[in-house]
Amino acid sequence: MKANLRPAVRQTIRQRLNYWSGRPAVETAGRALGAAAAGFLLAGAAAAGIWLPLALSLAASLGLCLESFAAYAGGCLGYVVFWGTGKALEPVAAGLLVEACLCIFGEQTKQNRWLGPGCTAVFTALVGFLFLLEQRFAPPLLWRYGFRILVAGGGALCFRQALEEGNAMARLGLLACLCAGLCAIQPVGFPLGAAAACALAAAALDTPMGLTAAILCGLALDLSWGSGCSTAVLALSALAGRNRNRLLRLALWLGAVLLGVLLTGTSSLLLAGAILGAGLSWLIPTELLFGAPKTARRQEDQRLAAAAGLLDQLGRCLEPGRSARADPETAAVFDQAAERVCRMCSLWESCWNQNAQETVEALDRAAPAMMTRGKALREDLPPLFVNRCRHLEGFLTAVNRELDDLSCRRQCRSRIRESREILARQYGALSRALSREQPAEQPVCRFRPEVGFRSQSRRGDTPSGDRGATFRLGKYFYLLLCDGMGTGQSAAGEAGAAIAILRTLLQAGVTPPEAMELLNGIYILRDDGGFATVDLLQADLTTGEVTLLKWGSAVSYVKRRSGVEKIGTASPPPGIGIGEEFRPEETTLSLGRGELLVLVSDGAGGETAERCLRQYGGLSPKELAAGLVGSSQGQEDDRTAAVLALQPS
Question: Could you report the per-residue pLDDT of 36-52, keeping only the tens digit for each?
């Protein structure tokens, strides 16, 4: 019934459109209303709370016509509604100059593809310069000024390619901008842009533009709505829903969105938008928006390369420290304190005008100790300053208040830099995964894995907080063991979620170190205190070499005929920080000669496990795993043991 409903609805829509399209007046009015609605929505688009001149870009891309004036009128109304009269003055004035330019040059704007975008960028710059002059060129406004100029010109060029040249990528860009504008409309707190973006991403799953549409829609939500990690969630969901029939593809896509929302801490409204968007995607004509499905390998490679390039560019844009500069923070502390306390003092003229140099030198000598301690004391100030100051206690109180504010600002900037670095690494890892070539032929494996796994909860009747998984990708065999924080259902959920995200990343082509780093970033961004230790084992079945990545997990063991060797040291779990000191411990070894690699959780490790390993003389991984768990009875923790052996094929 569902299969017949979609064509019937589309046929009804086409019949109604054909009926009205034969009437020129109605068709002209419909195009004008559509342009006005698009201009209204584009006026609501934002990037980190900054209005964007996208409505002006749309008006310029349409050229000299009724639709252009309608788009400008709708944009003016949108800027007033979404941003208020004060902020709407700048785009309204710039748009008026753009429309005047279109009237003067007429058809030349259609013949020269650069004239419209250039005029939009120039007039946005001129009007913006006047508003900057009014604000006395405040530093925070300078980068917004340059960003708006780039958006104005680039948006006009992109929209023209979408409307006149039919470029699929440009069409997606225009649709993503409309979704960003819809985020400004939030009835009962639900952004309509979330449903529209998810519907667009879901409709594009079975097209060559599926991954690109997911990235652009997620980026529109992240910038305009501030939902969290929508780009990463929708991108991974698009990868999970590839090459399936429609119903199964949507089911996998919704499941991947649910998993991404739970792991990244993205707003749950994204999941609601995905559910609504999955239903709306049935009505979207994919062949009209994205082009007919293409199965050629070359076109697919080009699409993946474009998506990889986009993610890499996004990662580079988020790299910290590109335009960092030192702020005179110490001087600002004293200036603010002086404005609060010293301005009303009778000695203001003497201290800060006639003897300003002496006052500044006295405060400069006190600054190092004060900034190191984070608090200003009477002993930090020179005796001459202390004896002369009539409001010393008030001045010290004001300075300490400013120091507290400075500390909060520094912590906030540090947190923002850390989040940007995490997102840049996530985008870079996804870009490398998409660019990585897959082997054309299945390799010949000399070994086959034999695994023994045994787990038992602390009490025996509650879920174990330890989780494991095994799977194979090409010539590699993977063994995962995660120990969730605590015991019981909550620990089991943490460990299971870590297993799921690592498995999905590895299947998407991400390398094990990158997958571990992405999990670490997810834990940091989620910021709820939950985590799971990780043992990630990658065995090459062609050579017998094994790479073991350990992060916060218990010591592992290698049992050889000559004895038992420990692997790993005590370390913090993932989710503590980023950088070289916060990385998993990596060990490479060979299991090609009958060795047994043993992974255990905290409850099954220790001296008891080592003694059991030394006494065991067999070669069965299952028997050894059962013996390790059985020998650790009485431990106040969940007990899990996983044993791997590589047998000749």
Answer: 998 898 888 888 778 88
For residue 475, the SS3 value is: coil
What SS3 string covers 574-590?
Answer: CCCCCCCCCCCEEEEEE
Q: Which two tokens stand for residue 310?
A: 């986009």
Give me 191's structure tokens. 């952004």
Is there a contact between 548 and 597 (Cβ–Cβ < 8 Å)? yes
**350-388: per-residue pLDDT in tens?**
777 777 777 777 777 777 777 777 777 777 777 777 777
- The strands making up 596-600's β-sheet, listed across from edge to edge, are 447-456, 639-648, 596-600, 556-560, 563-567
Q: Are 353 and 345 in contact (CB under 8 A)?
A: no
Q: What is the pLDDT of residue 254?
A: 81
Summary mean pLDDT of the chain: 78
Share of the chain above pLDDT 90, in %: 6
pTM: 0.46
- For residues 320 and 420, the answer to whether their CB atoms sit within 8 Å is yes
Alpha carbon 96 to chain centroid, angstroms: 37
Say how far apart CA 285 and CA 10 lie, in whole Å. 8
CA distances from 138 to 132, 142, 332 (A): 7, 7, 16
Largest CA distance in the chain: 93
Q: What is the model's pLDDT at position 290? A: 58
CA distance 377 to 112: 68
- 386: three-class secondary structure by DSSP: helix
| CB contact at 8 A, 568 and 550 | yes
Compute the distance between CA of residue 591 and CA of residue 36 in angstroms, rounded to an integer: 68
Dist. CA 611–CA 619, nearest whole Å: 16
* DSSP codes joined into one string, 300-347: HHHHHHHHHHHHHHHHHHT-TTSS-----HHHHHHHHHHHHHGGGSTT
Give residue-wise pLDDT tens across range 73-112: 998 998 898 888 888 888 888 888 888 888 887 767 666 7
**Which residue is associated with the tokens 């060559």?**
208
Helix, strand, or coil (residue 547): strand
Token pair listed for 236: 């991974």
Q: Which of 553, 570, 647, 567 is nearest to 610 (CA)?
A: 567
Read off the pLDDT of residues 511-552 as tens digits, 9 standing for 90 and up: 898 888 888 887 877 766 567 889 999 999 989 999 999 988
From CA 47, how far away is CA 40, in angstroms rounded?
Answer: 17
Q: How would you classify the pairing of strands 545-551 and 532-540?
A: antiparallel
What's the burial of 200, exposed, middle or buried (CB within 10 Å: 0-12/13-18/19+)? buried
